[in-house]
Amino acid sequence: MAKLLELDDDYFGDQFGVEADTYARFSYYPPCPRPEFVFGLKPHSDGSFITLLMVDSSIGGLQVLRDGAWYGVPTKRHTLIINLGDQMEIMSDGTFKSPVHRVVTNAEKERLSVALFYSVDPEREIQPAGKLVDENHPALYKKVKIKEYIAGFYEHFSQGKMVIETAKI
Ligand SMILES: O=C(O)CCC(=O)C(=O)O
Ligand SMILES: [Fe+2]
């Protein structure tokens, strides 16, 4: 991905720092008698740099927002879903997007997923890569401290808001 942006090969790896974090979230979505009223997980983008997601291949539920419409993410056995998070959107100055996604419930079937969130060292700050920014391509995102961003993520999520909006210039 660094190559696609004409950055040094190890640009993103170097941003992680020595105390980078990995969080795992194991989610169990029980059957829900009224799926039209209840989300399994409400719309959000991931606050991570990158997320590896292992979803139940026997049932869908994960949806991604594109141009105002929700699309079901297909499931396939033994396949990981790789999702880009907000930290990547910020560092790439918006070239790579952190997609808004959600999980819908199902009236009959339960569902399991495991997400691994890879995140920059919480003590570090990130900003759009210097090489991507000049007078014709201004920075679209502010410098953010990861620790504060992650704390802001949960606060915004609980209010149904997107923390990435606070990083936009
Ligand atoms: O359960 C899923 O498929 C998605 C989980 C997710 O988006 C998350 O934990 O951030
Ligand atoms: Fe997510």
Automatic annotation (TrEMBL):
PROSITE patterns named in the record: FE2OG_OXY
UniProt keyword Iron, yes or no: yes
Residues in Fe2OG dioxygenase domain copies: 19-120
UniProt entry keywords in alphabetical sequence: Iron, Metal-binding
Keyword Ribonucleoprotein: no
InterPro entries, per the entry: IPNS-like_FE2OG_OXY, IPNS-like_sf, Oxoglu/Fe-dep_dioxygenase_dom, Plant_2OG-oxidoreductases
Molecular function GO labels: metal ion binding
Protein name: Fe2OG dioxygenase domain-containing protein
Lineage of producing organism: Eukaryota, Viridiplantae, Streptophyta, Embryophyta, Tracheophyta
